[in-house]
């Protein structure tokens, strides 16, 4: 049967293009995910390894070796130990690497730096001189290339250096070394000093993270000598590893996060693969339906059932192999391209490496092949059951009744009910894990039941849309003539759309709810604090007026913050108060309850503890009013504040409170904040408040949404390939019928319109159902996640959802173009002649 | 001369100088060699000939399903050769009816919708009286709500005939309409077709290789190697068989 299978693939190669594409994309996703993981590790290894590049051994204090004893004294590795190690005859060189911070002052500016001991005899502390020479006395340093350029410092310059001991001395830059690619170091300006000078500067923190060692002759001998040395000095918590082992150790420590990223990506890859599986099932179902007579003829001629089945499975195997290899090649090319791009765009990341391991290449291929063969096994079983008589059946059946298996329905109902219950419980209880489990159970359950509602919805909506158009009615009928096929095609799309819209609704609701709780906490949109500036009421008023004239600002009000003297209680000494002008304050504040009257103090209480009715501050007894909204300080009127005995005058500062226009977008708010900072001549972080926080949260959520949507878009893309695939195969299957319609007076345009309507029906209804499911899941999920934080505010991003629907419909339309053209190209005679 | 100005003649379908060939150079087959032919109104004509004689090609070209290389084909006063695809489609909808050998019906819709299909495609309503006449003549009243796969072969062909007659086309083409039927059912369908020429004045052109089927026609045209080589009036099974035998010599 092998030659029959191969001949089939050869003959019908065109029919398999779409399915090969779908499988290749699914496999490429998986392969790329794994390649991201291995490449991240390799890149880290490459860059971390920079520190130990030329070393044989690394000794370091290892917490894991320390005994579980609170009195245990951890070993401190200092210059003394390094010198002892250098004296061992088996050791050639040894130096320590440290993280000791200092400050370097040039004529213009000051910079934070890391201080590192270097010795010309000891490999220069692992550094690589680009220019000049090593420091020879305590007045000389070397500096790394990148930061030297940034500081405009070159060899021969004199700079001020402050160590951990707080002493500042002038030093001369005598050399420039290459900037390390080690991600743990590369962010810092690295200053190399003579060892004794370093020890002095480092003071109490003169300790090493690692001691990097070169063996004189053999590494094992050096290792033995070191072990003996450590044992002799009872340093039981010190590990010695080869440089390679140490790098692997460090990478493992740093890649915990990458592994999580990989897991998240794998979940998306899984979604893409499930969708691909549905496309494969569909393709084979159609292909086998088309070959009914051929297969039945084989049976008539003596092919065993088993042979028919293996013939189909062999085809699936060949397709799986071709598509998976293609997919992995695609992923490798993509990753290589990305890394090349990084090299070109960010030259300093030249250490970024493409790394592929056997597992990362073999697993996607195997998964791709298995998925294809397993997905094809169901259609293959159906082919096997074909009666030889089917070859002689004269009529093409109008529609196939494929009843969903009872077992599947029962199982689907059980899963849906159980999952739905869990989801509801999770939402009510505000528990994300429970709700997540519910979603994980109920979604597959609903998908199992899809055959109950998808064809019915497609037909119903199709009839509704068609009106009196014959082509429309035929399209609606055609769309459901094989309910199983329609269900599988639509389900593939439904999965992607459900997940995308769930994320969108969840994100939007999260934004709205956070906005809500932020608005509750921040009674004023924006606060401009003028710290470090002498209080000048007239100037502050001028500033408030100037700010008030900016576009996007509705109202402004000034405040005066200061501390008042108190005796007794928790606030003995200074007590921070904000004095406001009640008239203008009431215009900027969102909650009128916190506008103070003279003689009143508004206290912010988030903890819920009882507050006394009266409070004595600054020698005066004030009425207490409690509010949950917070301006970080308690509020009084300006007049009240001035009547109180104030504390340290240096703590006093003024500021402006701002109410912004209600409908500003996030980017407008960001721009406005910059503008305000500019006008007020303060750093932009001095402009704070609810709208800023809100814009920040919104932006974070938007970025997350964009990333997740992009990942899910792969699944949607595959599903749309599936729509095109199903349609083009259906067109092949209906060649004679379409030709008959043409002969009877259906115009080419009408034929294309009919196919387009069929595609749009399947795509549109799948998207619509997906949107409905996504909205439900999104709202329940958001409730489960956020109801604990505060009052929920449900918002559905209609525009985005409409966009998803439009994209699905347009894509379905596009998917119908090629099949439609092929169908219209065929002359009625040719079509009717086709057997 | 535009197609609209052609005078209506006593012929429902006429063709002049029709040529068509397939393939290139060495594989070239001349399916039609300058065929001149005219089919009188309200007549039932059968086209016969051995395999490869060009009879199907002639019918496909006359019906506007296929395009000839040269010549003219006049139906309802219009030259099909000058029409584009959409105009041809409109012609097929309004002026031409079809009964094929098999796969005559759209499987998704019932018999009634199939009969009405050309009219619904044109967005026209049907003449109820005429509809009743046709379906009663063809004995389809009980079958209207059935889907094609619920009908026997003969019933399916009768539905196809009804569909062809319902638009009162200038001409109905039959392509081996009884090829897939047993002889009794075939005879039934052919009688119905003959009745429709006699009683409804319908012009019918049928391609067949079965002398028994051809004997229902008023006229038999004989074709060989892409040309019309003979004509029989009021044929019988015997005369047709004889004529075919003489063609083979």
Can you offer a commentary on this structure?
The complex is a heterodimer of chains A (835) and B (249). By secondary structure, chain A is of the alpha+beta class. Chain A has four domains: 1-51 and 244-394, no CATH class; 57-243, no CATH class; 454-522 and 689-835, no CATH class; 524-688, no CATH class. Chain A is built from 26 helices and 20 strands. In chain A, the strands form four sheets. In chain A, strands 3-4-9-6-8-7 form a six-stranded mixed beta barrel. Chain A has a six-stranded mixed β-sheet with strand order 18-14-13-19-12-20. In chain A, strands 2-10-1-11 form a four-stranded antiparallel β-sheet. In chain A, a hairpin with a 2-residue loop joins β16 (614-617) and β17 (620-627). The longest helix of chain A is centred in the last third of the chain and has 44 residues, at 690-733. Residues 394-399 of chain A have low confidence and may be disordered. Chain B has one domain: 3-Layer(aba) Sandwich (Rossmann fold). In chain B, 35% of the residues lie in helices and 25% in strands. In chain B, the strands form two sheets. Chain B has a six-stranded mixed β-sheet with strand order 6-7-8-3-9-10, sandwiched between helices. In chain B, strands 2-1-4-5 form a four-stranded antiparallel β-sheet, covered by helices on one side. In chain B, β7 (171-175), α6 (183-200) and β8 form a beta-alpha-beta unit. In chain B, α3 runs parallel beside α5, α4 packs antiparallel against α5 (153-166) and α5 (153-166) packs parallel to α6 (183-200). The radius of gyration of chain B is 18 Å and the shape is globular. The A-B interface holds A 394-399, 468, 470-471, 473-474, 477-478, 481, 736-737, 740-750, 827-829, 832 and B 60, 63, 65-66, 85-86, 89-90, 92-94, 98, 100, 102-109, 117-118, 120-123, 147-149, 153, 163, 180.
């Amino acid at each position: 049967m092998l030659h029959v299978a191969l001949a089939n693939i050869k003959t019908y190669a065109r029919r398999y293009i779409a399915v090969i594409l779908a499988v290749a994309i699914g496999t490429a996703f998986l392969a790329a995910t794994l390649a991201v993981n291995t490449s991240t590790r390799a890149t880290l290894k490459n860059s971390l390894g920079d520190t130990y590049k030329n070393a044989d051994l690394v000794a370091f204090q290892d917490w894991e070796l320390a005994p579980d004893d609170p009195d245990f004294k951890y070993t401190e590795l200092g210059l003394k130990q390094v010198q002892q190690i250098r004296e061992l005859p088996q050791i050639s060189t040894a130096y320590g690497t440290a993280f000791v911070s200092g400050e370097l002052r040039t004529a213009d500016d000051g910079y934070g730096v890391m201080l590192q001991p270097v010795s010309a005899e000891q490999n220069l502390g692992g550094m690589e001189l680009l220019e000049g020479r090593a420091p020879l006395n305590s007045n000389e340093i070397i500096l790394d290339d990148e930061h030297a350029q940034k500081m405009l410092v070159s060899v021969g310059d004199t700079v001020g250096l402050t160590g951990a001991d707080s002493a500042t001395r002038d030093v001369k830059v005598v050399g420039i070394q290459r900037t390390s690619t080690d991600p743990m170091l590369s962010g810092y300006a690295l200053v190399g000093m003579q060892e004794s000078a370093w020890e002095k500067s480092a003071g109490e923190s003169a300790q090493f993270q690692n001691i990097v060692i070169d063996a004189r002759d053999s590494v094992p001998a050096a290792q033995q000598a070191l072990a003996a040395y450590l044992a002799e000095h009872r340093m039981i918590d010190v590990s010695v590893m080869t440089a390679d082992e140490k790098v692997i150790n460090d990478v493992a420590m740093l890649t915990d996060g990458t592994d999580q990223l990989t897991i998240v990506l794998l979940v998306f890859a899984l979604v893409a693969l499930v969708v691909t599986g549905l496309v494969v099932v569909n393709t084979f179902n159609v292909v086998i339906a088309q070959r009914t007579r051929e297969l039945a003829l084989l049976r008539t001629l003596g092919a065993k059932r088993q042979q028919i089945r293996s013939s189909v499975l062999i085809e699936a195997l060949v397709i799986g192999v071709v598509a998976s290899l293609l997919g992995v090649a695609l992923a490798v090319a993509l990753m290589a391209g990305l890394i090349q791009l990084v090299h070109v765009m960010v030259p300093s990341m030249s250490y970024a490496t493409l790394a592929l391991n056997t597992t990362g290449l073999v697993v996607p291929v195997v998964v791709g092949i298995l998925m294809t063969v397993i997905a094809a096994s169901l259609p293959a079983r159906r082919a096997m059951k074909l009666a030889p008589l089917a070859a002689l059946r004269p009529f093409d059946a109008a529609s196939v009744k494929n009843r969903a298996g009872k077992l599947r329905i029962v199982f689907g109902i059980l899963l849906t009910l159980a999952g739905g219950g869990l989801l509801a419980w999770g939402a009510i209880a505000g528990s994300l894990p429970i709700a997540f489990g519910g979603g994980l159970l109920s979604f597959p359950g609903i998908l199992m039941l899809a055959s109950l509602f998808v064809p019915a919805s497609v037909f119903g909506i199709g009839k509704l849309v068609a009106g009196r158009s014959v082509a429309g009615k035929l399209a609606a009928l055609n769309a459901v003539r094989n309910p199983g096929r329609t269900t599988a095609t639509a389900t593939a799309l439904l999965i992607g759309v459900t997940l995308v819209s769930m994320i969108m609704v969840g994100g939007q609701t999260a934004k709205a709810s956070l906005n809500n709780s932020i608005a509750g906490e921040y009674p004023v949109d924006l606060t401009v604090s003028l710290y470090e500036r002498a209080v000048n009421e007239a100037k502050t008023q001028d500033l408030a007026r100037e700010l008030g004239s900016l576009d996007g600002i509705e109202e402004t009000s000034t405040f005066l913050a200061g501390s008042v003297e108190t005796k007794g209680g928790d606030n003995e000494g200074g007590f921070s108060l904000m004095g406001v002008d009640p008239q203008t304050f009431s215009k900027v504040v969102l909650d009128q309850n916190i506008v103070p009257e003279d003689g009143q103090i508004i206290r912010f209480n988030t903890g819920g503890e009882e507050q006394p009715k009266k409070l004595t501050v600054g020698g005066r007894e004030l009425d207490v009013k409690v509010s949950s909204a917070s301006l970080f300080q308690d509020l009084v009127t300006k007049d009240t504040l001035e009547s109180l005995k104030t504390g340290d005058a240096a703590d006093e500062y003024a500021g402006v409170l701002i109410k912004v226009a209600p409908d500003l977008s996030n980017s407008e708010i960001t721009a406005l904040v910059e503008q305000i900072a500019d006008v007020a001549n303060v750093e932009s972080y001095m402009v704070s408040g609810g709208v800023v926080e809100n814009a920040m949260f919104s932006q974070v959520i938007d970025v997350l949404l964009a990333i997740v949507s992009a990942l899910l878009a792969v699944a949607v893309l595959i599903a749309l390939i599936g729509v095109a695939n199903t349609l083009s195969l259906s067109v092949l299957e209906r060649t004679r019928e379409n030709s008959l319609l043409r002969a009877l007076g259906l115009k080419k345009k009408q034929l294309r319109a009919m196919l387009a309507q069929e595609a749009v029906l399947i795509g549109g209804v799948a998207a619509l159902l997906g949107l409905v499911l996504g909205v439900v899941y999104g709202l329940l999920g958001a409730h489960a996640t956020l109801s604990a934080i505060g009052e929920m505010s449900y918002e559905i991003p209609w525009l985005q959802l409409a966009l998803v629907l439009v994209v699905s419909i347009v894509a379905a339309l596009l998917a119908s173009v090629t099949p439609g053209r092929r169908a219209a190209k065929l002359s009625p005679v040719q079509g009717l002649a086709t057997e | 001369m535009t197609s609209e100005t052609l005078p209506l003649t006593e012929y429902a379908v006429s063709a002049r100088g029709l040529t068509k060939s397939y393939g290139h150079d060495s594989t070239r087959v001349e399916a039609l060699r300058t065929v001149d032919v005219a089919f009188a109104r309200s007549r039932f004509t059968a086209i016969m000939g051995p395999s490869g004689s060009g009879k199907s090609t002639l019918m496909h070209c006359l019906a506007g399903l296929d395009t000839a290389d040269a010549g003219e084909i006049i139906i309802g006063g219009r030259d099909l050769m000058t029409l584009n695809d959409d105009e041809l489609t409109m012609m097929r909808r309004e002026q031409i009816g079809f009964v094929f050998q098999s796969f005559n019906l759209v499987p998704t819709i019932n018999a009634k919708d199939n009969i009405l299909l050309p009219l619904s495609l044109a967005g026209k309503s049907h003449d109820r009286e005429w509809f009743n006449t046709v379906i009663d003549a063809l004995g389809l009243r009980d079958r209207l709500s059935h889907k094609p796969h619920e009908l026997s072969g003969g019933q399916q062909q009768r539905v196809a005939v009804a569909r062809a007659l319902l638009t009162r086309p200038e001409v109905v083409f039959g392509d081996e309409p009884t090829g897939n039927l047993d002889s009794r059912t075939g005879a039934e369908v052919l009688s119905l077709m003959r009745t429709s020429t006699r009683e409804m004045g319908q012009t019918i052109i049928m391609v067949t290789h079965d002398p028994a089927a051809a004997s229902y026609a008023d006229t038999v045209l004989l074709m060989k190697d892409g040309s019309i080589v003979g004509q029989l009036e009021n044929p019988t099974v015997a005369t047709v068989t004889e004529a075919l035998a003489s063609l083979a010599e």
